[in-house]
Amino acid sequence: MRVTLATGASGFLGRPLVRALLDAGREVVALCRDPAALTDLGHSSPRIATGDHRDPAPYSSWLADGVSVFHLASVRHHPRVRAREMEEVNV
User: Fold this and answer.
1) Could you tell me the CA-to-CA distances from 88 to 35, 39, 58, 71, 74 in Å, in that order?
2) Looking at 1-5, 68-72, 81-85, which range is the least confident one?
3) Residue of 34 and 90 predicted with greater confidence
């Protein structure tokens, strides 16, 4: 089975992507800060890796040849968000 890692899995774009991947029969590793946001996805659930993608400890064991990665984690422009943080998260 093909494994997919999705960052930002509980977000606006991540949640529908994770649901679609699960519906297609893919094994999904969902990296998110709020795993409770993924509890109602239906018949199958993703494996949850809780954390911030800038710290690879929760998900590094899933990175291998053949694993697809969808990087959907992001920080929006906001007066309290530093430019450096936006670059670290979004890039």
Assistant:
1) 22, 28, 17, 12, 9
2) 81-85
3) 34
| Amino acid making up residue 24 | A
Strand 68-71 versus strand 47-50 pairing type: unpaired
Q: Are 31 and 54 in contact (CB under 8 A)?
A: no
- Name the residue type at position 5: L
* pLDDT on residue 18: 94
SS (H, E, C) the chain: CCEEEEECCCCCCHHHHHHHHHHCCCEEEEEECCHHHHCCCCCCCCEEEECCCCCCCCCHHHCCCCCEEEECCCCCCCCCCCHHHHHHHHC
